[in-house]
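Q: Sequence in, structure out?
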Amino acid sequence: MAPAERYAYAVARLRAMSGRLLEEALIQRILDSEDLDSALKVLGETTYSSWLVELKGGADFDRVIESELLHVYTEVQKFVPDPRLVHLCRIPYDFHNVKVLLKSLILAREGGERRFDLLTSLGVLPTDDLIMAMESEDYRLLPFGLHRLVPLCLSHWEQTKDILQVENILDDGLFSVLSEMAAATGFDSATRWVKGRIDAENIRNLLRLKRMEMDTGNIASFLHGGGWISREKLLALLPEPVESWPRILSFADVASAFSHIQDLSDLGVLLVEMEKVLDEYVSSILARAKYDAFSPENVIAFLWMKELEAKNLRIAMVSVANNTDRNLARGLLRHGR
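A: Exactly. Output:
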């Protein structure tokens, strides 16, 4: 483990890079734009301008957002003493890519066409290596437990044709890898952050599956271990009205997320709003990092803020491109600083 003192230089570099983080006022200006071209002009006033020259069409703005995020990941990884702190943010993209390739493989087996356009370069593993492993069905060298998970997913699909459970197997594997990696860094802050992410995901899953009226026995398999809240306590929420969940979960920090929601009775609206407040809850776990010049938490905190910025930009750009209710979009913006 790198001593915390070794992070003084890394934190100084991160603070120098803080100019790459967009101010909330700029996101608001994008939302106030009349059309997509105007929104892109506003974005061109920022560090994103470097990637706008590669834009093939106005609707391809997601590639611009991805390019900026990849640049930040790559730069931070160069000077952080323990790259695992960066990998904690990047590995979820590897699992996303595996999901894309698995679905593509399943489609091809059923006479459809393979699709690689949804792959992202933000993961740790080069996409070409992943494609080669999937195409050749040689998974032995895949890291992060994927050498075992991929054949397990394919076997489960052949037996059940249940794509939700296939994705759930990968999600469970992802959180297991993140938990192990966070513990291996030796930094308690990394472990707390991963535990918070697991709790947030479990709450999301509970709300989604409750809305779907899925059987309680099936819901249990969609809850991931490793968080602060046990599966048993989470399952005990199901028969209770959502309005009582904050009281029942009062022992856990994630309960504070519910205090930002005014109406807990409409599950459809609640699900959308909880996406925002749970992301902000995950941010709050690292809030104290900015007061400590030697804290490794600063690495994750900076990268997570960049992740939230990417989400906010997508919300704003999609709203402008589709000319949807801008006030609704404003209500979905994450506040991570």
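The mean pLDDT is 91.
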